C-alpha cells in the first residue's frame, strides 16, 4: 500500500548505512555551518535522517557553453554560504584574461531532503516546513514506500553579469544586486532558525513517544 509505514528494521538499517557513509554529497563534501545543528537534530531523531542539504549560497557561476548550459562545463568563480560584500564579488570577476564567455550572479536558497519513517512523520515535518515559510516543500513516495520530504524555499535570484567575456553590469549595479542577495540570505537564515526550533520540538516529542498525528 502506497505510503504505509516502512518496516522499522529496514528504515533503521538504511539510516545507519547512510549516516555511517559520507553525509553530504555536494562538491563541498560537508554540511554547511548554518545548518549543522538542524541536521544533527533530524539525524538524532528516530523518525528521520537527512540525505542531502544546502544552507543556501551566493555564487557567480561561469559557463563557456553559451546558452546551452551544461554542468560539466560550468564552474564557480565565487561561492559563499553567508552574506557577502560586493567588492568580494567584483574581485572574482574583474580579471579580463581569465573571464569566461558567460557568467551569472546567483542566490540559491536553502534545500533539504529528509527520509521519514512513515507517512505520518513525513506529513508532520512537511507541515512544520510550510509553516516556517518553506512553501515550495513537498514529499514523494517511491514504489518501495521510501518517503522523502523535500524542504525548499523560493529566495532565489539569477542575474547575467558577463557576456562574451565582457562585464555587462556596472559596479553600482553589482552593489545593488549584492545587497538584494544579502537580504534574501538573511531571510533564508531567519526561516532556517525558525525551522530548527520547530524541528527540535517535533523531534523531542517523537523521541519521547508522543503522537505526531
UniProtKB/TrEMBL annotation:
Reaction it catalyzes: 4-demethyl-7-[(3S)-3-amino-3-carboxypropyl]wyosine(37) in tRNA(Phe) + S-adenosyl-L-methionine = 7-[(3S)-3-amino-3-carboxypropyl]wyosine(37) in tRNA(Phe) + S-adenosyl-L-homocysteine + H(+)
Top-level division of the source organism's lineage: Eukaryota
Keyword vocabulary terms for this entry: Methyltransferase, S-adenosyl-L-methionine, Transferase, tRNA processing
EC number(s) from the headed UniProt entry: 2.1.1.282
EC class (word): transferase
Family: Belongs to the TYW3 family.
Swiss-Prot/TrEMBL GO biological process terms: methylation; tRNA processing
Domain tRNA wybutosine-synthesizing protein, first and last residues per copy: 18-200
Role this protein plays: Probable S-adenosyl-L-methionine-dependent methyltransferase that acts as a component of the wybutosine biosynthesis pathway. Wybutosine is a hyper modified guanosine with a tricyclic base found at the 3'-position adjacent to the anticodon of eukaryotic phenylalanine tRNA.
InterPro entries referenced in this protein's UniProt entry, alphabetically: tRNA_yW-synthesising, tRNA_yW-synthesising-like_sf
SUPFAM superfamilies (alphabetical): SSo0622-like (SSF111278)
Matching Pfam families: TYW3 (PF02676)
Pathway of action: tRNA modification; wybutosine-tRNA(Phe) biosynthesis
Molecular function GO terms recorded: methyltransferase activity
Protein name, entry field: tRNA wybutosine-synthesizing protein 3 homolog
